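step 3/5: co-fold with protoporphyrin IX containing FE
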Amino acid sequence: MAFFLSSSSNFVHPQLQPIVAKMTLLDTLFFYVIHFVDKLGIWHRLPVFMGLAYLGIRRHLHQRYNLLHVGRINGQKYDTERLSYRTADGTCNHPHDHLVGSQGTCFGRNMPPSTSPYGLLEPHPAIVASKLLARKKFVDNGKQFNMIACSWIQFMIHDWVDHLEDTEQVEIKSPEEIATGCPLKSFKFYKTKKVPTASTSSDSDCLNARTPWWDGSVIYGNNMEGMQRVRTFKDGKLKISGDGLLEHDENGIPISGDVRNCWAGFSLLQALFAKEHNAVCDMLKVHYPDLDDEKLYRHARLVTSAVIAKIHTIDWTAELLKTDTLLAGMRINWYGFLGKRFKDLHGHILGPILNGLVGLKKPRDHGVPYSLTEEFVSVYRMHALLPDKLILRDIESTASEDKCPPILEEVLMRDMAGKEGERRLSTIGMEQMLVSMGHQACGAITLWNYPSWMRNLIAHDVNGEDRADPVDMAALEIYRDRERGVARYNEFRRNLLMIPINKWEDLTDDKEVVEALKEVYGDDVEKLDLQVGLHAEKKIKGFAISETAFFIFLLIASRRLEADRFFTTNFNSKTYTEKGLEWVNKTETLKDVIDRHFPDMTRRWMKCSSAFSVWDWEPNPESYIPLYLRPAP
Ligand code: HEM
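step 4/5: write tokens
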């Protein structure tokens, strides 16, 4: 809704042309009516209801026009009654096709592959990285989002997506004109693997090395081998070390579901949720002493995955898009308009709007088998969240209760990654790391904020081992979107039923940014890379991300819940156990989970209402109450 401009559309998919025109009207209409109602001040909740109605219509249109069939899945029917647990490789979730959403299936698409005429090196990715992305000075996100929130989203990405690589390498050399400003004169990386599929949208597609379901694979692994690595095979539990952190193998690699490109903050969340899983096992064993190791594991995995999905939906996302409408919207996704109390008392009896997506009688995929999409991966390229240094705090301090813990040390982020990061984390410990990350704001998603240390990064392979060649991640991300046929910014917006930009000033008011965009792209707004557009776009107040990225979120956040039978048909006490379901229902936020394991620490140091906002921020107990139930201000 930020742009109300008109434009001719060069690259929009022909089917979408008439809809785009209608969306202009819809966006404009809603914008002015909401604004007017707000000004009149008739009823303080009315603008929120109207905002929700707008988002409902938007989501419906995206479900209709932005879910494309990709790849061929020829799975088989199977016995859903017998397989009422999450499998190691994500098979047997879709009710009729056992392969949908399993490891190694294709990425989907929200729009056809790009039709733009520009080449892979046009403009050169290293020029885009150096002139528009590279951090000049660290810009933080204010108090809205902390380092736990930053690690959380990496934790989720590693649950959902990872493009399988080819065995063939590519080398990118920096052009002469910027070679001196580039940390790497050239860098090598593996191509993205593509397989011929001849689906309706493209000839070849990319494969997801992770299971796209919200199944906790980041802690449980993406296949049988990964799952066996993390289990103790006693009382359903996962391996964790005596200090509550992850165990490591003889090479110093953490024992967890996913070990690629990890750093201490990410590994900390893996350990916290392995601990949560084990606590669920203990609880289940007390109430159901007859359950064996396998059954305890299966139930605890379902419960822990649902806790993670719930925290992401009603806690993390509400902090990311900090507006009353989105806070209400995300709670409605989980509980429905009638709220938690109604659902607790009567169950899911009134459909998705009134009772939420979770607990629907049947999963819904809107006619397109579930997968996560290329465009979804692109809008989650948020490495700008990462700072240059991690600020460690002294939690033994006797500072008065209302002060934040004093700073002990600042450690380079580079030193907190990989094996070195794991070694450091083991001396820091879980509580100190949580308090430190809780008190540190993460980076803002804006231009000139891409961490410099990632422009010369030794990435890790799937086994967690260092790669031989360093990469310039900022340049690589620009290349990846082009290589995978993700539309450039304007084409992306048109395909999302949004108004494209006509001139740089439509994107931002910042004159310095406009100058830099002109220097890289000339006057050709169609050339603008998606990443640059997402980072440059003027943000809606309260949103940490762009509006363009948000519409992909709106579609996929619901899809992850409504397409999964373990959040719909099987979200019941028979599958989860009565006590397991109660555990999910009682856990609302990450703060609840941290509090369960470290009550003294949260009492002492966590002042805010969400564990994802900076911890010395004023608490806002209201944010736990659905907006439509809150008293008038
Ligand atoms: C220290 C922390 C991190 C490191 C070292 C790291 C490193 C990497 C590397 C090496 C890649 C693969 C690049 C390629 O070959 O295409 C990657 C991909 C990606 N990262 Fe990160 N990352 C970190 C944190 C994050 C965070 C906080 C986010 C936030 C959302 C994020 C989101 C992504 C996404 C969406 C991809 C693309 C995945 C795909 O291609 O399927 N990463 N990261």
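step 5/5: annotate
Residues 150, 153-154, 157, 161-163, 189, 261, 263, 377, 380-383, 385-386, 417, 459, 476, 480 surround protoporphyrin IX containing FE (CB under 6 Å).
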